[in-house]
Design a protein that fits this description.
Layout (H helix, E strand, L loop, with lengths): L1 H44 L4 H21 L1 H7 L1 H15 L9 H28 L6 H21 L10 H18 L16 H7 L1 H27 L4 H28 L2 H15 L11 H15 L2 H11 L6 H30 L2 H24 L19 H24 L1
Helix pairs in contact: 1-2, 1-5, 1-6, 1-7, 2-5, 2-14, 3-4, 4-5, 4-7, 5-14, 6-10, 6-13, 8-9, 9-10, 9-13, 9-14, 9-15, 10-11, 10-12, 11-12, 11-13, 11-15, 14-15
């Protein structure tokens, strides 16, 4: 019992100062997840062919990539909070514009700019979060961040069931969620990172400094993109029903959520490169056998998908944590952009290569690709461990604790203090 109290107390110490941050992240993910699925369904319902709809939706990722390359300049100029609020507000204003016309070119332009907005916002969030962490708790903090993104995204999918006769209600909900997401971030007690000192961090230099983190982020995007894009196709080709396919996809993502906290805690206790090797080895061993476990038994199907998700979705937070362990605060903003770029490249390239392999060599290539990629990660990481010292930057000047309350909460506190004094004076006068 005492051990549980210690664990709960340590979690409370970490989560409490970051609760507003995670709330804003979850609301943001809920909003853009709902919008993405809504647009896909409405294009299909309006007779836009699948190929054209795919191009329109993929422009979102192009905007995301452009943001990872350029928006760090905006953040370094005006700060994280202002940049986040500006681009979330812009996204909120763009959302109702989808109602004006369903022209594919018009929606494509909107999706491109929406991708830039959300890419900039996530660059703000990830670089900000890593300046508030230190090498002893970065793994668990990144895991909590990933949990908030997955939880928000899953809630967004549930909101697809909201009745919407005139087609405008969903857009209003999305815009409202984005606006609400501004509140906790704007009023957070966490001080924003210092933007007066920032260093350039191009991809080549980042690779020289943290090769395992760079390769891990790309490999993560490769595998996550394959699962999200081709998982349903794989399940259908295996003869699963629509219900079973939905369970397979849901349990895969749910497994990734379950693994975040224990793996994050583990990576804070050991060299993250070893943890990356262990989790990659787990996926390397189990992936080829999944094909023999996917049958009509729902329990076996769900358990198999959960195990698969446990291996797929933990690679990115481990890689990001390992990378930021070796960076100074002044390097984090542009470095976060490079990590987001690497994952985005993997998200785009992975499904293209794996779908081609599935087309020519069969359905088994979907699972074999997980073993091939993780095998390459294991070999690369082992060589880096054998030849290079980790050289962590241990003197991170920031900790995940607020050092000063915001003006809003100061005013609330002062007002409460004033009313309590008045109440006490009236009570004394009465007596």
């Amino acid at each position: 019992m005492s051990a549980l109290k210690v664990v709960f107390s340590s979690f409370k110490t970490i989560i409490s100062p970051l609760s507003a941050f995670f709330a804003g992240t979850g609301l943001t993910c809920c909003a853009f997840s709902l919008l993405s699925s809504t647009l896909a369904l409405r294009m299909t319902g309006n007779g836009i062919d699948t190929a054209k709809a795919g191009i329109v939706l993929s422009l979102y990722y192009l905007g995301y990539v452009v943001a990872s390359l350029t928006s760090y300049r905006i953040i370094n100029k005006v700060g994280h909070i202002r940049t986040f609020c500006a681009f979330i507000s812009t996204f909120s204003a763009i959302v109702p514009m989808h109602y004006i016309d369903i022209n594919a070119v018009y929606w494509g332009a909107l999706r491109l700019f929406e991708g830039y907005c959300i890419g900039t916002c996530f660059l703000c969030l990830e670089s900000w979060l890593n300046t508030r962490a230190n090498n002893k708790n970065r793994g668990i903090i990144m895991s909590l961040y990933m949990l908030s993104t997955y939880f928000g995204s899953s809630l967004g999918q549930l909101l697809l069931n909201v009745p919407d006769r005139n087609g405008m209600i969903v857009y209003a909900i999305v815009a409202g969620l984005f606006s609400i997401a501004l509140v906790p971030i704007s009023l957070t007690a966490l001080p924003a990172p210092d933007i007066t000192a920032h260093k350039s961090m191009p991809l080549k230099e980042l690779y020289k400094k943290v090769p395992v983190g760079v390769v891990g982020c790309f490999a993560s995007g490769f595998l996550v993109g394959a699962f999200y894009t081709l998982g349903a196709i794989f399940a259908k080709n295996m003869g699963l029903s629509i219900e079973q396919t939905s369970i397979f996809m849901f349990c895969g993502i749910f497994g990734g959520m379950l693994a975040q906290l224990p793996i994050g805690k583990l990576s804070d206790k050991f060299d993250r490169r070893y943890v990356l090797m262990w989790t990659s080895g787990f996926l390397f061993l189990i992936a080829p056998w999944m094909q023999f476990l996917l049958d009509e038994n729902m329990i076996i199907l769900a358990a198999s998908a959960i195990l698969l998700g446990c291996g797929i979705f933990v690679m990115y937070p481990i890689s990001v944590s390992h990378t930021n362990d070796k960076l100074e605060d002044s390097e984090r903003t542009q470095a976060s952009g490079m990590l987001i770029l690497l994952q985005s490249m993997g998200l785009i390239i992975g499904p293209i290569i794996i779908s081609a392999m599935m087309q020519f060599f069969g359905n088994i290539c979907f699972l074999l690709s997980f073993s091939i990629v993780t095998g390459a990660v294991i070999i690369f990481t082992f060589r880096q461990i054998a030849t290079k010292d980790v050289n962590y930057v241990s003197n991170t000047p920031t900790t995940p604790q607020p050092v000063a309350p915001t003006h809003a909460f100061n005013n609330i506190t002062e007002n409460l203090g004033f009313f309590s004094k008045v109440k006490s004076a009236l009570r004394n006068k009465k007596h």
